[in-house]
Amino acid sequence: MDFQLKTLTVARAAAEKSDVLIVLVGSVPITAKDPLSALIASARKAGDLPDKAGKLLTLYQPNEVVASRVVLAAIGDGKPASVRSGVIAAVNAAKAHGPKRVVVVFAHEADSAAVGCAVSAAADASYVYTTTKSKASNGEGGRTIRNLTLGVADAAAVSKAFDEARATVSGIELAKEWGNRPGNYCTPTLLADAAKDLAKLPRIKCEVLGPKEVQKLGMGSFAAVAQGSAEPLRFIVLRYQGGPKDEAPVVLVGKGITFDTGGVSLKPAAEMDEMKFDMCGAASVLGTFRALGEIQPAINVVGLVPSCENMNDGRAIKPGDVVTSMSGQTIEVLNTDAEGRLILCDALTYAKRFDPAAVIDIATLTGACVVALGGVRSGLFTADEALASALQAAGEASQDRCWRLPLDDEYADGLKSNFADVANVAGRAGGAITAAKFLQRFAGDFAWAHLDIAGTAWKSGAAKGSTGRPVGLLVSYLMERARSGAAKAAPPKAARKNAGPVSRKARSAQ
Prior knowledge:
- There is one protein chain.
- The chain is elongated and about 80 Å long.
- Strand 19 and strand 20 form a beta hairpin.
- About 35% of the residues lie in helices and about 20% in strands.
- By secondary structure, the chain is an alpha/beta fold.
- Strands 7, 8, 9, 10, 11, 14, 15, 16 and 18 form a nine-stranded mixed sheet that branches. It has a six-stranded mixed sheet with strand order 1-6-5-2-4-3. It has a three-stranded mixed sheet with strand order 12-13-17.
- It contains 14 helices and 20 strands.
């Protein structure tokens, strides 16, 4: 979808050519005297358009309006959450008429946050997945809205926020695309190819390691998960260089299980198809890099994606097996369905070579987090107060919210093993926390945070599909870091002599 930003009043928007005109109406009084503004004021006075965000009033061929349909959408106090509710409701209503061109105008002055949320919400409400649908080739069944013009009182004042939001939408939709693809359309190799495509963008480089390189690195935990699948594993390394070469990067680590059967600890058949979404952490890393490539902020970012399938054959790992991680720590595999942490721990160890300013891993890790937080907020785990505050603030700003959970040392007691340094699972109680405690063992040398997105990465039921979360949160965090110069305030601990490419051969690993 093509987004455009334009300086428009309600009166000027009424003269714009479009199939549907959406007017976002806040709770403050409307003082303009043009016919459409007067009509809106009358509707509000009559109680036909309540102030509650998301309430709508649809008009057909109102006088002196070019668009045949006008949707008045209440946005209440005009804050980002209210704007999001109003835009999603209005775009969903407009979609019923199959519009190609839509104009959305604020009836009142809108700040950068409101503009960003309007762009994100419009894209979210109009998105349609088509890759594996036969009708898509005939142009049917896809996204009908081709062009959306956003009208504000002063376009120049919010242009940066608009451009950032538009780029973030590109990243979110890339994450949605790969999250929605079924396992046979999203193998580790295909996911790696998608990462390589990102290297066409400025300042982004990509290398892909295969089984031989992973074995040479000593990633025994990652390799153990992959050994039960016919699909070869891939370890993806993305680098965005927007700051000075000696500036410490932020490292994003995304869980890339392209399909998860649970292994020998087999999952129930019901809803197992949704385990194609188990690579949404990886998809969010790719989506974030897509946004970075368009925005071009002054920051360095590394993306690490360990990707494989968790399948069953005669070579698959078994409950009770002991594997050796890249860190040298041995792990007793008590449950093969707790495989995400087994691939992430080796990626966290690999992240050390970049002497990172911060490391954030993103994973659809535990059903326990879904029980705790549902689908509203992602779980946030970190012992670093500054990082916690920054990520929470980014979540609020982007409406891609998270909630911090504890990391008390006592939660790690259940991970003790008689046969290895650590077990990969503890008991049922506090499952999301004990999973985070497992990962924390491999992140002791840098500022680290873990985002459990098991409840927020996708939706089930009639609205089944990837949400693209937490791309919005990650981009917001990185942009604020770039704006504040936080990266410059955290120089690397040592010369990163090991941070370069592993080998030329690894770029085309087989």
